Amino acid sequence: MKDRQNIHGSWASRWVFIMAATGSAVGLGNIWKFPYIAGQNGGGAFVLVYLLFILAVGVPIMMAEVLVGRRGRQSPINSMREVAMEAGHAPGWSVVGWVGALAGFLIFSFYSVVAGWVLAYVAAMGNGEFLDIGSEQASKVFSRLLADPQALLIWHSVFVVLVMTVLMGGVNKGLERATKIMMPALFVLLLLLLGYSMTSGSFGEGLEFLFHFDPSELSWDAVLVALGHSFFTLSLGMGSIMAYGSYMPKNASIGGTVLTIAALDTIVALVAGMAIFPIVFANSLDPGAGPGLMFITLPVAFGHMPGGQVFGFLFFVLVALAAWTSAISLMEPGVAWMVERFGLKRGPVCIMLGMVVWLLGIAALSSFNFGSDIALFGMNIFDFLDFITANVFLPLGGLFVAVFTGWILNKKITGNELAIANPLYYLAWSVMIRYIAPIAVAAIFIFNLIEKLG
Ligand code: PHE
Questions:
Q1: Which among 318, 279, 281 has a CA at the least distance from the CA of 299?
Q2: Ligand 1 in contact with 272 (CB < 6 A)?
Q3: How far is the CA of 130 from the centre of ligand 1 (A)?
Q4: Which among 61, 167, 232 is the best mutation to test ligand 1's pocket, defined by most ligand atoms within 8 Å of the CB?
Q5: pTM score
Q6: Which among 1, 175, 202, 285 is least buried, having the fewest CB atoms inside 10 angstroms?
Q7: What is the pLDDT of residues 402-444, one digit of tens each?
Q8: What separation in Å is there between the alpha carbon of 199 and the centre of ligand 1?
């Protein structure tokens, strides 16, 4: 086979790919969303189901995305087209890349708003605004922020600029360099916070909550939430991992690499839970507080603990870094495609796309203030964007990638890219990608639609 070259560059090593993909996967999904949905769904049993989906659905689909990206060596849109044509099929498969890039924009628009809250909290924590504050006051601080479009706009804009600056630098001087600095920092901060929580929080109670197993607490709805979240948290179904895979060295094994990334992402989510819940319990707060868990409950807890100001500040810095490296990967598929399609430099492309997502973000942030009356299918714009991406776009994208690699590509291509020595492992992957993943995903897709829109 002729080896394609990627015009955008490639990761210096397998480890850089692992770090970059982990940077994409580890984000608000792990630190903000996972603890609060685990809290809302009763903890233990939910966590187990989520782990199951990561292994049975997430890992095989992530392998499929990396496979297609590395084979095509271009943006997801063009890689899907090239690889489909190589297998003797219609170039129209590129539509999966198109829908993915669109999903990236839609996710970015609300992701950037939440990341903006995080930045605002970095500042507020640093200023000691939460010292000795009660829950009621803390929720007032949060609602005041949401009601202030100007403040939201400023922080959202700062975040867009941060993300676009890294993207402008390109694969090696932007993405790779940022990854190498931010990922180690993220892991150090996480361990520091875990240590703090182990010594200052009700650690046993936190662990018990996350890992006790009581199947009677598990609702069908929780199963669906867990499956949807396994896509979101691994950055699957919209091309981020495919784009990063297109920069992956040819000699690295896809299976082992993907298992490492999925394991790291899962560890971060669990450690985030282990850092957050003990603090929540030590302060007799409610683990099921919902989206406000991180913005209302935690600041109250930090405000009452020795060293809480410093650790609260560090906590929000950690979340900001995680959100930053994820948001970069949300835009990379679109940026790479624009560069390929129009032969433009990354600079102007990033400025143009940055303006587009900046505008979309304004629509999302208006949901909490001047646009709160706008309703789409009974949801405000922010909730609608969250809903339609996590429950429609990502599962659908993942479903198509699974069908494409499992049923459309031949064994010559998938076997060659995956290069799995043990035929049993290859068989396991193909059963998962052909049957288990598509069926599970189709189920979540259909049930969610029936439940939410029906
Ligand atoms: N995985 C990221 C998180 O957990 C979100 C994300 C989704 C990033 C899809 C890229 C693509 O926060």
A1: 279
A2: no
A3: 29
A4: 232
A5: 0.94
A6: 1
A7: 999 999 999 999 999 999 989 999 999 999 999 999 999 888 7
A8: 31
Which residue carries 């046993």 as its tokens?
204
Dist. CA 236 → ligand 1 center (Å): 8
- 328 touches 178 (CB < 8 A): yes
Site to probe by mutation for ligand 1, drawn from 105, 112, 230, 240 as the one with most ligand atoms within 8 Å of Cβ, is 240
Ramachandran category for residue 128: left, alpha or beta (phi over 0 → left; psi -120 to 50 → alpha): left
Of all protein residues, whose CA lies closest to atom 11 belonging to ligand 1? 235
Distance between CA atoms of 300 and 131, rounded to whole angstroms?
8
Instruction: Give 134-148 pLDDT, tens digit per residue.
Output: 888 988 999 999 999
pLDDT at site 55: 96
pLDDT over 60 (residue 2): no
Residue 81 to residue 388: CA distance in whole angstroms: 25
| Atom from ligand 1 closest to the CA of residue 323 | 12
Angle at 103 between CA 115 and CA 120, to 5 degrees: 5
**Residue with CA nearest ligand 1 atom 9:** 235
CA distance 9 to 361: 30
In sequence order, what are the beta bridge partners of 31?
none
CA distances from 37 to 192, 228, 229, 398 (A): 24, 11, 9, 22
**What single letter denotes the amino acid at residue 153?**
L
Q: What is the dihedral of CA 254, 269, 175, 360, to 10 degrees?
A: 120
Q: Picking from 5-14, 90-99, 440-449, which range would have the lowest pLDDT averaged per residue?
A: 440-449
